[in-house]
Amino acid sequence: MRPSNDLPAVYLCREAVDFRKGINGLAVLAEEVMDLDPFSERLFVFCNRRRDRVRILYWERNGFCMWQKRLEQDRFFWPRREAGTVITWTGQQLNWLLDGIDVLRMQPHARLRYRSVL
Predict the structure, then answer these.
(1) What is the pTM of this model?
(2) 115 within some domain
(3) Interatomic CA distance for residues 54 and 41, integer angstroms
(4) Which of 3, 5, 15, 48 shows the smallest number of beta carbons within 10 Å?
(5) Which of 17-21, 83-87, 94-98: highest mean pLDDT?
(6) Half-sphere exposure of 82 (CA within 13 A, CB side)
């Protein structure tokens, strides 16, 4: 369940988001704060304050879908210094972010290996 590298545009909300917000709250942020159309079948990416979780919201034909990734030890390299409320990336850049790669420096997180969730 990864985004295609060929996506024409992915929209990142530059500011941290309260992850108590669900699909409706994120759709409102996409429309009112990011000033974009949440029904545009584009990906809207949000990060929490600790930068250990990312949520992706998108409209698919007849309803919203939300996808989340949580990092166990590291933090996402979130581009907070860029100007504006919205950052536009490609699908490839989003996949790098999800892989734990700092897109600006191209440095990855270490691979973690666990044997049990207990």
Answers:
(1) 0.85
(2) no
(3) 18
(4) 5
(5) 17-21
(6) 15
